[in-house]
Amino acid sequence: MAAHRKPRQSPLGGQAGRTAATLALASAATATLFEGSGHAEPRPTTAQVKEKVDRLYEEAEVATERYNGAKEKADEARAAFERLRDEAARRTQRLNTARDGLGAMAAAQYRSGGLDPAVQLALTSNPDQYLERAALAERAGERQAAAVSAVRRE
Hints:
Layout: H1 14-38, H2 46-112, H3 117-123, H4 127-153
Helix pairs in contact: 2-4
């Protein structure tokens, strides 16, 4: 229904609109040109550049010293870790050896029957031989107790 109407024209259409747009662009460009050139940074002098370079070298030197200190500490920590790891491996090996020895002693006791020493004395035909064996058994018991203590310490 609105197709029969005449299109509206803009108030700044035609030649007058183009002239206004051109003037607006020209004035904006001029303002930008003058504003930008009025606030330009002055070029640094050779002395200022040298001073800045010297300051940057000092900062780099400080950073390098900090890096070297941190690297030295890391190397020391790595060496200490390696020593501790080796010590742990040696202790684990000693513990395993002691456990194997205790296991062998326990198996031997089990195989011998574990009779009470008084019963063994009553059943023996030679009391002297029994006493020798009892002394040996007592020393073996002391060694077993020492081995158990060593395992507990490990």
